[in-house]
Amino acid sequence: MMEEGFIPTNATFNTILKGFCKEENMDKALELVDHFQRFGNAPDLVSFNTILSSACKQENYSPISWVLSRVEVEGLRLNLISMTCLIQYFCMVGNFSDCFKLVDFMIKEGHMPSTVTFNVLLYGLCKQGLVGTAYRIFHKFKNLEFSPDIFSYNILIRAFIKVKKHSFVRQLVVDLCRQNFLPDSVTCGSFIYSLCKEGDIVAALHVRDWMLLNGIAPTSSIYNTILNALFRRRMYWEIYQLMVHMAKEGIEPDIFSFSILRRAMSRDRMDSNLGIMRT
Question: What are the ranges of the PPR repeats (predicted)?
């Protein structure tokens, strides 16, 4: 390229830099930044954010520290993307003290966290088991007129299912609908799982019916959740009926579906034989 008389631009360098970072070759990436000035260029915030994003995902503090130092030397200021990367890093390493300080700093500087930033924080807290803290922050930001999205709700719904707090799942689904969000397949699948765990199979089937009416195809895993709940309650005939519905809707049962059906048929015969023996 240079032999032909073309001088690399920042866009060229940043493309190569992105490739190094994608390969997690951080040494080459940092070395390339030092080559920018040889061709009359200077690394920009896109360059630094590319390295920062990769380093944060790798939980590699050394390049993060290097980027923060170089950004200051270059007279640049971190933007929303930079700070979202750092929030993700702090969450991954469990450093929530610095994480919350950074969020407060963003707000004071007039950088209201984006929905992506907000979801990164929620996910990080839930992954570390701090579901209650995530839920409080969720409501705190809502009071600041910040609008969560469907992913925000799904993060919390799945987290509450994991800690077996199904009443909060119901509250979140109700709140989601009041905010005029349309539940997606993840929301519905999670809600059905929660309802089945509570033993409310009728409500779970109503959610399945709502999905069909709204053009959201239930997956085989969603059906398996309901089938398993039916089996636990010895509702063997209902298992057969539900599998007939699956076939009519074009949902192909998987190995787990057939396993439940076989066990149900075997258990049904056993129960029938016990009934005959008792009479």
Answer: 9-43, 79-113, 114-148, 149-183, 184-218, 219-253
Integer Cα distance of 83 and 234 in angstroms:
53
Which tens digits make up the pLDDT trace of 223-275?
A: 999 999 999 999 999 999 999 988 888 888 899 999 999 998 887 665 554 34
CA distance 118 to 126: 12
Rounded to whole angstroms, the Cα distance separating 58 from 55 reads 5
Helix (H) or strand (E) holding 165: none
pLDDT in tens, 112-137: 788 888 999 999 999 999 999 999 99
Q: How many CB atoms lie within 10 A of CB 67?
A: 26
- 3-state helix, strand, coil split of the chain in percent (to 5) is 75, 0, 25
Torsion over CA of 161, 166, 172 and 175, rounded to 10 degrees? 160
> What global pTM score does this model have?
0.81
The first and second tokens of residue 17, run together, are 């830099």
Yes or no: say if 152 and 115 are a contact pair by the CB < 8 Å rule: yes
Asked if 190 contacts 176 with a C-beta cutoff of 8 angstroms, the reply is no
Q: CB under 8 Å to 274, separation ≥6 — which residues? A: none
Q: Which of 105, 55, 123, 45 is nearest to 81 (CA)?
A: 45
Angle between the 115-127 and 80-93 helix axes, to the nearest 10 degrees? 0
CA dist 230 and 234 (Å) reads 6
Name 234's Cβ contacts closer than 8 Å, sequence gap at least 6: 267, 271
